[in-house]
User: Fold this.
Amino acid sequence: MGRTALGEVPHDGCAVIMPNWLRVVLAIVGGFIAWFAVATVGNIVIRWLLPDYAQVEKAMDFSLVMLLARLVLGAVASLAAGAACVAVGRSSRLAVYLFSTLLLALFIPVHVNLWAKFPLWYHAIFLGSLIPFVVLGARLFGLSARR
Assistant:
């Protein structure tokens, strides 16, 4: 049985070809879903591991350990989002770079509004790590999927 233009083997012998633009859009949506799902679950885990976290979360008066936990969570969410993006978008670098840029664009105004609540180093690390960790997640998943 032959392969489609995207390298997929049709299940019923009929070629099913998804337009590249649609795959890119779905990859970006998948990236956002993955990022926020991992961040939500991770936030619950942080609350469980650091009992005082829930008490200071609303005021955003975090300790150093809490800030570091949030940065680790952001990195893990970004890695997962990059992996999700490349899983849906196949090897589309366009989807990964568009998604990571949109993610950064989403968080810049959030961090501008929170500027006084967190130290400068926190904003710099969080915002500066979004694109690299998304790309790394996409590369790591892309490499493991090819094996």
